[in-house]
Amino acid sequence: MFGNLFEEDEEGFPPAPTGGKVGKGKDAEPPQPRGLVGLSGIKNQGGTCYLNSLLQTLLYTPEFREELFSLGPKELGCLADKEKPEAKVRVIPLELQRLFAQLLLVDQHTASTADLTDSFGWSSSEESSQQDVQELNRILFSALESSLVGTSGSSLIHRLYHGTVVNQIICKDCGNISERQEDFLDLTVSVRGVCGLEEALWNMFVEEELFEGNNLYRCSQCDCLVRAAKSAKLRKLPPFLTVSLLRFNFDFTKCERYKETGRYTFPQTINLRPFCEQAERPDSEVTYELFSVIIHKGGCYGGHYHVYIKDIDQLGHWEAQDEEAKPKLQKKEVKVCEPALEKDDPLSVLIAILSQEEAKSVLVDQLGQKLLDKIGVSWNRKFRKQHGPIGKFLQSHSDVFLLVAGGARVTLKAVTPTPGPEPSPTSPERPAVAEGSGARPGDAHRWFDLNDSTVTPIREEDIEKQFQGKESAYMLFYRRAELQRPDEAKGNPSYMVPPHLLRLAQEENCRLQQRREEFDASSNTIEVRLHLAPHYQVKDGALQPVGPGQDGLMTISFDRRKTVGDFRLAVYQMQDLWEGDMALTVAQSLPAGLHLYNTLSDDQQSLYGAGVRDGSDLFVWNGREVRGASPQTGAEWEPVLLTLVRPSLEEVEEVEEEAGGQGLTRTARGFAGGATLALVREALGPEDTLLCQESRPGCSGGGASGWKVFPAADMHRTLKDLELRDGDALLVLEPQALDTSLISVSGDVVTVTTPSDCRWLQVEFCPRGEGGGGGGGGAAGEEEEDDGQRRRGKVPASGNMLLSEVKQRAIEELQLQPQLQGVRCCLRQVDSTGKLLPPVREDLSVREAGVKLMTSLLLCLGDAPGPTQLFLYSTVGSDSPAAGEREIIVEESLTAKECLMLIVKVAELEGESWHLRKTDWCEEVGDALTEEDATLAELKIHSGDTLVVTEGRLPPKGFLKMPVWFRVEHGDTLANAQQNHVTNGVEVQREGVSATDGSGADMRFVGLVEISGEAFLDDLKTQVMTLPSLQDVCVPTAAFLRVWVLEGRKLCKILRGNQLPLNKLKLGSGAELCVQQLLKEENLGSKELLLRVQMGVPGEREYYPPVELVWDTSRDSSPRGLRQALAAQYGLPADCLHIAKHFPDKYSWMTISNWSQQVSKRKKKKKAENLQGAPFHLKDGDVIGMKNLLIDNNKDFSTLRDELGQQRLREEAESRRKGRGQSRSAEPSLEPGPERKGAGKCRKPEVALSINVGVFR
């Protein structure tokens, strides 16, 4: 059910790679055909192993299968009509018929149950969830009975599986018998306290329960309390008896479920006469034979199901793989020395196990148990951590172990799995049967293990291994012994299959065969790139294209099974103008150019045998020369692309920093790998030219580049011998270059000093620069003391220097060793506003950390984050994220929930109703982190991000929980009505007027709304109006409501589109909303802005009350378009209007002038100014001031209130600068409530299993 979660040993192996070309689309690999066993498995959809086991049992119940096949389309309908509402199509039995036909007749390794589970009405979550096979058996039978109502198969389940139990109570005084009859489809028997099935049946149907002493029975005939005996008997036996074992129990002491794993036996053949009411029945009616065992492997909370099935109709090919298949007559055994057993060596242990087996082979799923018996420790406990699962260990040692029978068995390579006196030439893979042995041993007991897609033959003795243990029998299926199969059904999978299903299976087999043939052809088709010699030349030790185009390159698709001669002929036919011999040489594109290797000379060899693979390059030439030059071939002449470094003689004042320093020029050039260093020097300059190799980077941290001159002895060595690779640098020093100041030669060491080496970093020690709360500044005296302790100095640095070395050098330069002894410190950058940035990682170099040279760093107290750590800011509350910031360093592998617990602990917060939010790029609180189990890395949390701890629990996934406010005009009667309401147990508190609202309106908190993200805006408005605080508000329809999004308790934007889902409106959980009652319906478009226009009072510094204006910006969003809209609204000429936008946070106005942005003369079209962009950024609710210049000459928009506000802002800024600012107290929480203790971790609730069935009555 959960894969190998509950399995100790790996079962099965992943499919081996096909080795062919991976197909795409129609060329995708078709399903594999059936194996040697000849039976088809069922694909697991993620958690449907319980369903697969039950379906295989029903399939190999021939009577059930044939009864189901006897129902035709006239009774069940047609699947093609299932979407028609008037058609009554019985989908479940039809899909079950098709699945059975696929399993019997279609030549594929596994079949899918996707269509069947769709007919059940199951979703993907139900297909992957764990269920009980005993419960499924009852529900599936009930669904089939409901689906077959009104058909000839309506009594199918009743006839095959229905039985009757009679419960009797016999009065000991009068002999009166009181009985009650119960029907059953399966017998549920106890496992606890009994040793087997027969004892459990004896306890149920033979032993009597006595009513005596204080526990008497009231007899209806005696009309008094009497002694009595209670018993139960089987009155009616079905043809097929299903037995469910109660393996799972509940421990009331520990209050937990557990699985009974003790030994519980069950017979292959059972006689039920002692348990029946009628003891005179013939043996043929009460004798049952076992034919299916469903096995559960795992615990009570999860596991895996598979089934052992007896092949009654002999549809599969049963073949023993061990001592049963060995011939009776064998040659004299050859003694094999048993290898020494080393218990700590898994290879030695497994070899010893296999060598001691008589058959020299073992089932892979039994190998783990044999290892446990051998050394007393399981594979998982001793070897899995170091060597992985046992299956993968066997695969990785393919030189020792050989997997046979489709990977189900393992044997030693040195030993034949099934030895015989003489190998048979006709069937080498099957064991020979000795003369006179009669029928094969498996004919009488053809049992198979059907484990989802894997089918393996087993012996009857293997069933006894399922009596006990973690993997044990869970359901038993018996059939009446008198049921005989006709001879024509033996080995005939098409027996009793309807003609239309036979036709569908034949068509499917034809399609599969065609797909396999197409896939086989496509798998052997390779693409080869041909490089034509006339378009290449020999240059720099390799073949280089003559022109910039791709004229010399052709791609040809060819069957790799054909010969080289066939391929050469095909190339000849493509090249009509080719004259003379044609040679095909394997080539490879290297960084230095195209290089040739071996020539294909054997025309009878296949392309595959010649080493030509998909994507190979072949060079087409005459085999002698290319444009008059002979190219070098072979691996020893592979060209090398070297980087030639020469001193630049030009004076460069300022250049960008690069690796390797400045004042050097770099060029790439290729050379043949077999060329000597002397030939390379000859090609680069005069004989006295020095060639130098870059020395390995050391730990000095300096910036100067070090080079080493090649000695004279190396001049006769090739580039291959010198181990020069592509991209290696060679410093070429000609005699005139030695006279420059950049080059200094000392023996065989050359030092190149470049301008970039003279770089530095300024480091300043900030004793109080560490974070730790982010709140408040110090006193003036403390500032002066800090200034006295501050030290700064320049530290020589380069781009390759580690920041840990920079820090150490800064401590030495600033003489801070005594002061920082045992104190942790870190380096931090400062942005343009003076804010400290997160500490830099000290394991990175200056360049890797993005630190620019000739800039400043602060040496602060505190830790630096490691390679797997994040430096984060945390704060509590959503109103002012910058207030009360704390700095924490956490592991990026931490989950969001663990990070929240850490922050809550550091902040000493109480309760558990908290969740995390992340601030966005503009430092505003964003959406909540709903994925509590996701790591910080998965949530894309980076160093420097701010996490805000917000009060309140997270809403369920997919739901939005948003606080709602109501916008009330002063003097409105609703203000008095709302004062009497209580929302969520908290009296509604009046909040202050929004700073963006100059109309005198205020906002009142009315409650919380929890709604699905898939709901529409109309649904949100309707749910808002159901809040108790708004029951006195009269709104005819949802269109009479306007919904604002709040940011910082200020109106931000209006939600548009009444039929749009909330997810598309980008609303996150916790977003604050404000609703406003309207006097008329409103449906704003996406390009319409709602502005509040205030007309100035002539001669005064005041404004009339604001008027709402809906401005369509789709036509013209420039100042001209706004003036025309205002002119049309007020009936004034546009040229006489003077307008400005109000910024309430700054108490200032910005004039919107008639000036258009000037552009360069090169641009043909002038760029119109967009008021929705910088610097105005017009949005919903913005206040636009307007002056009528015909009657008002005052162009100043500021009011007395604006001057007072600006003065207050200046005073607050001055107070903050001097460190005397006091942080405002946090607002009271809107969601108070009793503290809830966190519940303990509980298991995910189990979901009931169900199958949806149509109505056919």
Uncertain stretches: 1-27, 323-340, 415-443, 651-661, 698-703, 769-786, 973-999, 1156-1165, 1220-1244
Report strand %.
25-35%
Secondary structure tally, helices: 25
**Helices and strands: which structural class?**
alpha+beta
Largest sheet: 8 strands, mixed
- Oligomerization state: single chain
- Span between termini: 36 Å
Principal-axis shape equals extended
Rg (CA only): 43 Å
Total number of beta strands: 57
Q: Please, what is the average pLDDT?
A: 80
Classify the helix fraction into a percent range: 10-25%
Biased composition (Acidic residues): 1-12
Biased composition (Basic and acidic residues): 1207-1216, 1233-1244
GO cellular component, one term: cytosol
Biased composition (Gly residues): 769-780
Structural overview:
The protein has 1257 residues and is of the alpha+beta class. It is 19% helix and 26% strand. Strands 5, 10, 13, 14, 15, 19, 20 and 21 form an eight-stranded mixed β-sheet that branches. It has a seven-stranded mixed β-sheet with strand order 30-29-33-31-32-35-34. The protein is extended, with a radius of gyration of 43 Å. The two termini are 36 Å apart. InterPro entries: Papain-like_cys_pep_sf (IPR038765), Peptidase_C19 (IPR050164), Peptidase_C19_UCH (IPR001394), UBL_USP40 (IPR057763), USP (IPR028889), USP_CS (IPR018200). Residues 1-39, 415-448, 769-797, 1207-1244 are annotated as: Disordered. Residues 418-428 have a biased composition (Pro residues).
